[in-house]
Amino acid sequence: MKTLWAALFFVLLERALSVTRYSIPEEMERGSVVANLAADLGLDVSGLAQREVKLDIFHSKKYLDVNKRTGELFIVEKMDRETLCPGKITCFLKLDLIIESPLRMFNIELGITDINDNAPHFRRDRVELDVSESSSSGERFSLPNAFDPDVGANTVKTYKLSQSEHFSVDIHSGSDGTKYVDLVLMKALDREDKPTHNLILTAIDGGVPARSGTASIIVRVQDTNDNAPQFDQAHYSLNISENSPPGTVIVKLNASDADEGPNAELSYSFTLYTSEKTQEMFSLNANTGEIAVKGVIDYEEMKIFEMFLEARDNGAVPLSGQSRVTVYVNDMNDNHPEITIRSLKNTVEENIPVGTVIALVGVSDRDTGDNARVHLNMNKDLPFILNKSSENLYELLVSEVLDREVVTEYEITLVVSDKGNPPLSDNETITVHLLDVNDNAPQFPQSSYTIPVKENNAPGALLSSITALDPDLNENQYLVYFIIEKEIANTSMSMLFSINPENGNLYALRTFDYEMEKEFVFHIEARDSGVPPLSSNVSVHVIIMDQNDNTPLIVSPWRPHGSEVRETIPRSTDKGTLISKVIAIDSDSVHNSRITYQFLQNTDATLFSLDQYNGEIRTMRMFSYRDSRDQRLVVIAKDNGEPALSATVTIKLSTVETAMKTYTEVPLEYDIFSDLNLYLVIGLGSVSFLLLITILVTIVLKCQKAKPSKAAPPSRNSVISERNSTIADSTLVSNDAYWYSLFLAETRKGKLVVRQPVPKGSRYIVSSIPRSTGLTETSDSAASTLQVL
C-alpha cells in the first residue's frame, strides 16, 4: 500500500513539474499527426503495445488518440477553435497521457491556433434608414457592425461602401478593438432627384486570403416642402367670343408639385393683381383649376382680360407658383395691331457680338382669328434681324459687325401688320446708340516723315508737329506721343530730341552742326488712352541742312598770322607765266564750299589775270619799263553760300632785273633751303624710310599667311572729300603747287604731309601724320586722310 501511494505521489509530482506543449492550427484533417509522444517523452515504442496507454482529454469529445505502435499523437476528429474556445483569443486543450506497468503520467497541453475559416457577417442583412432631404452634409447615421468568430488578424479589419456621391463610411474602433462604422452624408439629398439610395456595405477581415460579408443599406429620402408648384405655362393666352354663355370653361390650369403627400396638394386662386372687373367676369375652381365664364362678356366694354393666378401647396410652410392668363375677346378687324418693346438696350458697344439680343419686342392685336394674326418686320435693310422666339414675341438681334466709326446710331422702325381684310398695321421706331470701344490704333497720315533742319538751330526750337489720328472717341482718342529710345554714338535719342506727349510737337534739345551730324533716324510712337491701349509708330528722318557758317580758309600762299605775302619775280617773265596760286578751302557742304577767286585790288589790271575757279595768277603780258617795280595784288576767295563768306590775301610782287628762276608749278622751289623746308626734307626722308620698312614687313607677313587679313577700319578722324575728275582738273589737284600749299596748311597744324602716288585714274591719297611722332598711324587719334577722285 505504501508503494502504491509512493508511485502515485511521484506521478503527481512529475505531472506538476513537467508539461509538454504543442500547437496546431484548427481544422486539421483526421489522421493528421500532431507529434511523436514516444520520441518527445523518451518512451520505448516497442514496449507501448504491452503496456496499457490511456489518453485522458479534458473535453466531452475525443479529438485525439495515441498510436501504440508508433507512439504518435494523431487527430481523431476535426477541431474547430471557435467551438472549443468560443469568444477567447487563446485556445488550449489539456491532455493527460497515463501509462501503466509501471504507472507514469504525462501532462500535455495542445494549443489550437486560429485560421481564417469564417467570413464576417452582419446580424441584419438589410438595414433601412429614413433620411430627410433637408439633412445637412456631415450628418452621421449608425450602422450595425459585422461579426467574425475568428480572432486576431482574421477578425473584421475594415468596411467598404459601394460607390455613392452622397454617402461615405467612417470607421472607428472600440476599447476592445471591435470595428464600428457610421454612414456619413457627404452631399445634400434631393428626393425629387432620387427618392431611394441602395447601398452595399462590405465588411472585410484581415485574413489571407481575406473574407468578406455584405449588408444592404436602403436609404429612403424623406420629403420636405422644398419645391414650389409650377404651372405648365407661365402665361396662358386665350380667345373667347363675346357673349359666351356663363359657365363656359375657357381654360383648365395645370400646375404640378414635385413633392409628395400634403406638400404636393395644390389649391388655385386669383392674386391681388387680378382686377375686380376680371374676377366679376370669370370664376376659378380652387381644386381643379378650371376658369369659367361668370358674367357677360362684351367686346366693346372689355377686349382683353388678364388674370394672375397662384397655385399654393399644403405644406407646413406653403410654397406657391404664379401664372398669367390673358383672354382675348373675338371681334371684327377694327383694331390695329400693337408693338410692345418689352426689353431694350438702346445703348450698346460697337463690338457687341453678332447674335446678341438688343430688344425683346412683343406684338398684339385686340382682334381675333385672322384679324389678330400679326407679322413683324423692319422697313429697311439694317445690320439687325428679327427672330420670333415665341407667339407674339420677337428678339431683335445683331446680324452684322457694327462699327461706330461708320455709323454712330441706328433708327430701327418696326412694322407690325395683321392678316385682316383690309389689313391693319402699326409701327414703332427705336434708336440704338453705339458706344465707342478702343478698336482702332492711332494712324499717322504718312508712312514716314522727313524733317529738314538747318544747322545752328536754337535749342528748344520746334522742328515739326507729328500727329496721328484715332477715329475712336473720348479716352480712346486721347493720344500720347513718345520717342522710341535709341542710341547713336553713345548718345540717347531723348537727349537730342523731345516730343510734346499731348500734341506731338517735336523739338530739338541742342544745336546741330552739319559738319558733325548729317541726319538722324528714329521712331515716334503714338499710343491712345484706351484699355488696353493701342499704338503705332512712324519713322522720322531728320536731315541737318547745311548753312554757310564757315568762312573760306586760304591755305596757299601760306602767310604767318595773316601778314602779306611777298614774292620776287624777274621782269623778263613771259606772258602767261604762273606767278602764284591762291588756294582756299571751306568745310561747308559742296554747294556752300564752291569757291571763286577775284581781284579785290590790282595795281595794274592789264598785267595780271586771275582764274576765278582755280585761283591761278598769271601774267597777261610782259613787263615794260613803265610798269612799277612793286605790284600789290589783293585776292578775295568767296564761297557760294547765301550770304557769301570770303577771305582775302595780299600778295606783294617785286620785280628784279637779274635773271631769276621763274615760278614753276613745283612749290618746293620757294625757300627751298629755309628751316621749314629742311624740316620737311628730314621728315619726308624719315617717313619714306619707315614706309619702305613697313612695305617690306607687310610683304613678308603676306607671304607667311595663307589668308590675307581683313583691312583695318578707316580712321575715325579721317576726313574724306571726293571730287570728280573735272573738278580735280579745275582745282589743279595734280599740280605740285596744290600739294605744297596743302603741306603748308597741315604743317601749321603740327603734322607732316606725305604724298603717296597711286595708279592713274585712281584716288589721290594724302596722309597727315602728327609731326611729333614721325610715324604713319592708323588709329583714331593718328591723322586724317584726304581722298580725291
Automatic annotation (TrEMBL):
<keyword id="KW-0325">Glycoprotein</keyword>
<feature type="domain" description="Cadherin">
    <location>
        <begin position="232"/>
        <end position="339"/>
    </location>
</feature>
<protein>
    <recommendedName>
        <fullName>Cadherin domain-containing protein</fullName>
    </recommendedName>
</protein>
<feature type="domain" description="Cadherin">
    <location>
        <begin position="123"/>
        <end position="231"/>
    </location>
</feature>
<feature type="domain" description="Cadherin">
    <location>
        <begin position="16"/>
        <end position="122"/>
    </location>
</feature>
<keyword id="KW-0130">Cell adhesion</keyword>
<dbReference type="InterPro" id="IPR032455">
    <property type="entry name" value="Cadherin_C"/>
</dbReference>
<dbReference type="InterPro" id="IPR050174">
    <property type="entry name" value="Protocadherin/Cadherin-CA"/>
</dbReference>
<feature type="domain" description="Cadherin">
    <location>
        <begin position="445"/>
        <end position="554"/>
    </location>
</feature>
<keyword id="KW-0812">Transmembrane</keyword>
<dbReference type="Pfam" id="PF00028">
    <property type="entry name" value="Cadherin"/>
</dbReference>
<dbReference type="Pfam" id="PF16492">
    <property type="entry name" value="Cadherin_C_2"/>
</dbReference>
<feature type="domain" description="Cadherin">
    <location>
        <begin position="568"/>
        <end position="669"/>
    </location>
</feature>
<dbReference type="GO" id="GO:0007156">
    <property type="term" value="P:homophilic cell adhesion via plasma membrane adhesion molecules"/>
</dbReference>
<dbReference type="InterPro" id="IPR013164">
    <property type="entry name" value="Cadherin_N"/>
</dbReference>
<dbReference type="GO" id="GO:0009653">
    <property type="term" value="P:anatomical structure morphogenesis"/>
</dbReference>
<comment type="function">
    <text>Potential calcium-dependent cell-adhesion protein. May be involved in the establishment and maintenance of specific neuronal connections in the brain.</text>
</comment>
<keyword id="KW-0106">Calcium</keyword>
<feature type="domain" description="Cadherin">
    <location>
        <begin position="340"/>
        <end position="444"/>
    </location>
</feature>
<keyword id="KW-0677">Repeat</keyword>
<keyword id="KW-0472">Membrane</keyword>
<keyword id="KW-0732">Signal</keyword>
<dbReference type="GO" id="GO:0005509">
    <property type="term" value="F:calcium ion binding"/>
</dbReference>
<dbReference type="GO" id="GO:0005886">
    <property type="term" value="C:plasma membrane"/>
</dbReference>
<dbReference type="InterPro" id="IPR020894">
    <property type="entry name" value="Cadherin_CS"/>
</dbReference>
<feature type="transmembrane region" description="Helical">
    <location>
        <begin position="678"/>
        <end position="701"/>
    </location>
</feature>
<dbReference type="InterPro" id="IPR002126">
    <property type="entry name" value="Cadherin-like_dom"/>
</dbReference>
<dbReference type="Pfam" id="PF08266">
    <property type="entry name" value="Cadherin_2"/>
</dbReference>
<feature type="signal peptide">
    <location>
        <begin position="1"/>
        <end position="18"/>
    </location>
</feature>
<keyword id="KW-1133">Transmembrane helix</keyword>
<keyword id="KW-1003">Cell membrane</keyword>
<dbReference type="InterPro" id="IPR015919">
    <property type="entry name" value="Cadherin-like_sf"/>
</dbReference>
